[in-house]
User: Which sequence fits this backbone?
């Protein structure tokens, strides 16, 4: 059988911003397991968006969360600029114009934006008036205590908690890749996705530095993506109708040396549609796995803030790899607030099972976006009833020390 190898490069590719890209992001997930009492799993993601219409300012969003191995939350940050609100309004306006008459679409849009702002005030994200700084000649991002810089093959990540919001985790880390980078520009990896589209991923990097000024080390996974359109990311077409899209993304590192990405695009709160793929990294190669795969739901968790049910426990079955992996969340509540959509579940997970006929264990991250959309009248009414029953949706979370913080 012909192997479907993807393009990889040994050196860290150019990770600088893409001029004019409607959406682009940088993502680091890590596991700090040396120099700490219990391992700490963290994620930091920075997004830059531009409106397709060309109106308004560039928008930025920073998401960061962390839990330790006992499930105690260590950090939860969700921050946006005003440009994110403007861009979301444009996407919502396009969706509603496709479903309703002009007058009704205008009314529904107004109510949606009012409801989104109300939810934002209760649960986040925070709107920052400061502007993110992004260099044009290199990858160097600074915003509100967050910094991510490329220094040759290495990356430097700094996240400060001195502002006093949502947690006790401040990191200053050097990330040194130990595996080749996946460096695909779209058609080979996702032929149905509108171009231009690029996916750069290094699933194994060495992590060294400090956590709360104490020396630590561990491993990290680095991702960089951008797209020339919002279509087939957040908006999809079914017949004559546009609809909001979501996705399930799973990235796991196994103790047999394999790293696996499973991606599945979804609609209607988790129904698979369109794009789906599995990529396995071995040694310095990356291969798109041929044949079908399954992400089977084994456990769900319902958010007390918004009533969304997330399938946070999964079984990943990939016959071509002989893989049957059980995915279990390290903590149930790893929900992060985002503007316009109810939230995203962005969680650290443990992995156990078999791959290639051998028992394996590992860790990784599961990302669930697009659950809780209210695109029909019954869904809208159900959400209104939930909010009426649970009026105090701004629920605090408990850290290990018993302090209370919120997203």
Assistant:
């Amino acid at each position: 059988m012909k192997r479907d190898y993807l393009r990889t490069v040994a050196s860290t590719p150019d990770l600088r911003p893409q001029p004019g890209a409607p959406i682009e992001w940088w993502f680091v997930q890590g596991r700090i397991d040396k120099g700490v009492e219990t391992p700490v799993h963290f994620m930091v993601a920075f997004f830059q968006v531009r409106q397709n219409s060309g109106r308004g300012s560039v928008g930025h969003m920073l998401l960061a969360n962390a839990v330790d191995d006992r499930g105690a939350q260590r950090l939860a940050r969700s921050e946006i600029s005003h440009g994110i609100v403007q861009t979301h309004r444009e996407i919502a306006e396009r969706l509603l114009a496709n479903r309703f008459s002009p007058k009704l679409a205008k009314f529904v849009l107004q109510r949606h934006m009012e409801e989104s702002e109300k939810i934002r005030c209760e649960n986040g994200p925070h709107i920052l008036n400061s502007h993110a700084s992004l260099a044009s000649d290199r990858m160097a991002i600074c915003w509100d205590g967050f910094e991510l810089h490329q220094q040759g093959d290495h990356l430097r990540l700094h996240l400060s908690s001195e502002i006093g919001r949502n947690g006790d985790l401040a990191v200053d880390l050097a990330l040194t890749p130990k595996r080749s980078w996946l460096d695909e520009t779209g058609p080979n990896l996702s032929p149905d996705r509108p171009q231009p589209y690029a996916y750069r991923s290094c699933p194994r990097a060495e992590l060294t530095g400090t956590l709360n000024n104490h020396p630590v080390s561990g491993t990290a996974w680095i991702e960089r993506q951008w797209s020339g359109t919002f279509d087939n990311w957040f908006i999809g077409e079914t017949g004559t109708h546009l609809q909001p899209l979501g996705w399930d993304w799973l990235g796991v590192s196994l103790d047999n040396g394999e790293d696996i990405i499973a991606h599945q695009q979804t609609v209607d709160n988790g129904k698979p549609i369109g794009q789906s793929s599995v990529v396995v990294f071995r040694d310095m190669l990356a291969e798109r796995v041929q044949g079908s795969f399954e992400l089977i739901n084994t456990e769900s968790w319902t958010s007390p803030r918004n009533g969304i049910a997330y399938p946070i426990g999964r079984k990943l079955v990939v016959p071509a790899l002989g893989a049957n992996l059980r995915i279990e969340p390290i903590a149930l509540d790893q929900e992060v607030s985002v503007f316009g959509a109810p939230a995203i579940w962005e969680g650290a997970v443990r992995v156990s099972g078999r791959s290639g006929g051998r028992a394996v264990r590992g860790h990784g991250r599961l990302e669930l976006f697009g659950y809780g959309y209210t695109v029909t009248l019954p869904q809208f009414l159900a959400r209104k009833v939930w909010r009426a029953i649970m009026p105090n949706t701004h629920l605090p979370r408990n850290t290990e020390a018993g302090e209370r913080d919120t997203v």
